[in-house]
Amino acid sequence: MFKINENYLKLPGSYLFSDIGKKVKAFTEANPDKKIIRLGIGDVTLPLAPAVIDALHKATDEMAVKETFKGYAPDLGYEFLRTAIAENDYKTRGVDITIDEIFISDGAKSDSGNIQEIFDLNNKIAVCDPVYPVYVDSNAMAGRTGEFLPELGRWSEVIYMPCTEESNFAPELPKVEPDIIYLCFPNNPTGSTINKAELQKWVDYANKAGAVIIYDAAYEAYISEEDVPHSIYECQGAKTCAIELRSFSKNAGFTGTRLAFTVIPKELKCGDVMLNSLWARRHGTKFNGTPYIIQAAGAAVYTEEGKRQTKEQIAYYMNNAKVIREGLAAAGYHVSGGVNAPYIWLKTPGKMTSWEFFDYLLKEANVVGTPGSGFGPHGEGYFRLTAFGTYENTLEAIERIKKL
Ligand code: MLT
Predict the structure, then answer these.
(1) Mean pLDDT of 138-153
(2) pTM > 0.95: yes or no
(3) Is the Cβ–Cβ distance between 394 and 324 less than 8 Å?
(4) 324 CA distance to ligand 1 centroid (A)?
(5) Where in the chain are all domains bearing CATH 3.90.1150.10?
(6) Among 47, 16, 40, 393, which Cα is nearest to 254's?
(7) CB of 188 closer than 6 A to ligand 1?
(8) Beta-bridge partners for 159
(9) Which terminal Cβ of the chain has fewer Cβ within 10 Å, N or C?
(10) Does residue 41 contact residue 386 with C-beta atoms inside 8 Å?
(11) What DSSP string describes 269-304?
């Protein structure tokens, strides 16, 4: 008789956003007349930029012609896209990343879940608490996290780095040395960031400890403050200790179109072995490339019009962030985030737990958010709202919350 991967049975509940989806569905079915405003999952609402749509149409037409038709995409992604990334995302920031250090993929969610495969099962991971659930769950599925302790809401073999109000929701360097450190800045879910000097401390720590940092920079386009780094490679020595994950989902609205990339510098080694080669091997075996038309659309993000149009979209969402932040603060809520990130992190009022506040907001204001406790024990008592809604819905949601 076959056996299953029993690590899956250790996972508590279902994926956070599936749980929320089920609750909202049940509420909508019981209250069909209510207009629900969704500020829960970080999904964009603006259509793709015109430059991106033009590129998609053009690439689609190429697929209809024998001479320009494309089959499988190259393993690492098309050179035209990797060159645009190296030039625009890195060179302009004084960072030298070569195109064979860039791996195009279908999303930062898949990359952040899959990257753990190239590491030994005995490696110890460190994560922020609260944290984007994919990092922990994917390691749990692999069997790297020990047992889940329901009374603590934690895994026995994971190093948790609490991110609290006292530290501006930034983690402190862990006392027990981890092998793999997951960092996400601008942060999901708290919307916090750290400056370059602070990030440099993590790079120095990792290089000294022989640890690898998996740096999720999916929200870098939302950075508005000067001294906040857009890439971990802006720090000295990061190429020998860091992998960077980037996405087109939040900076160009590709959540439904799927496009991302991972950077693994060739200097990043375990003994003589380059992690770049391991990921190339894994990518080549398990992934057959992001479709040509999507990569062509992605390259359009780096054209002059593409840059201008996507910048406008980000400004639109950041205006929503301002509406949420200022509206809630005026209503007496304790809020943070929303300045360098599209997420606003608020304290639940009174003694309400995160899920109690979720139910209250859904029932009384018909607004959906994300309970902080879904991101880890230190998220309890907090709640996340996203700035990715439409302007009109965002305004209305805040007006409804203010009236409660
Ligand atoms: C979120 O709401 O946290 C995001 O949608 C996560 C993601 O991008 O997968």
Answers:
(1) 96
(2) yes
(3) yes
(4) 18
(5) 7-47+305-403
(6) 47
(7) yes
(8) 126
(9) N
(10) yes
(11) EETTEEHHHHHHHHHHHH-----HHHHHHHHHTTSH
105-133 residue pLDDT tens: 999 999 999 999 999 999 999 999 999 99
User: Would you say 215 and 78 are in contact if contact means Cβ atoms under 8 Å apart?
Assistant: no
CB 386 within 8 A of CB 398: no
ipTM of the prediction: 0.92
pLDDT value of position 387: 98
Q: How many CA atoms lie within 13 A of 82 on its CB side?
A: 21
Q: Which atom of ligand 1 is nearest to the CA of 40?
A: 2
**DSSP type of residue 89:** I
Q: How big is the chain, counted in residues?
A: 404
Cβ-count burial 39-70 (b if 16+ within 10 Å, e if not): bbbbebbbebbebbebbbeebeeeeeeeeeeb
Superfamily of domain 7-47+305-403: Aspartate Aminotransferase, domain 1 (3.90.1150.10)
CB neighbour list of residue 253: distance below 8 Å, 6 or more residues apart = 44, 46, 47, 48, 49, 52, 310, 313
Is the Cβ atom of 42 under 6 angstroms away from ligand 1?
A: yes
- Which residues are within 8 A (CB) of 44 and not within 5 positions of it... i.e. 6 or more apart? 249, 250, 253, 255, 313, 317, 388
The C-alpha atoms of residue 244 and residue 238 are separated, in whole angstroms, by 10
Does 109 contact ligand 1 (Cβ within 6 A)?
yes
CATH 3.40.640.10 residue spans of the chain? 53-303
- Give residue 16 CA to ligand 1 midpoint distance, Å: 10
| Residue range 260-302, pLDDT digits in tens | 999 999 999 999 999 999 999 999 999 999 999 999 999 999 9
* Structure confidence at residue 16 (pLDDT): 84
Q: Would you say the CB of residue 41 lies under 6 angstroms from ligand 1? A: yes
CATH number of 53-303: 3.40.640.10
Atom of ligand 1 nearest to the CA of 386: 2
Residue nearest to atom 5 of ligand 1 (CA): 42
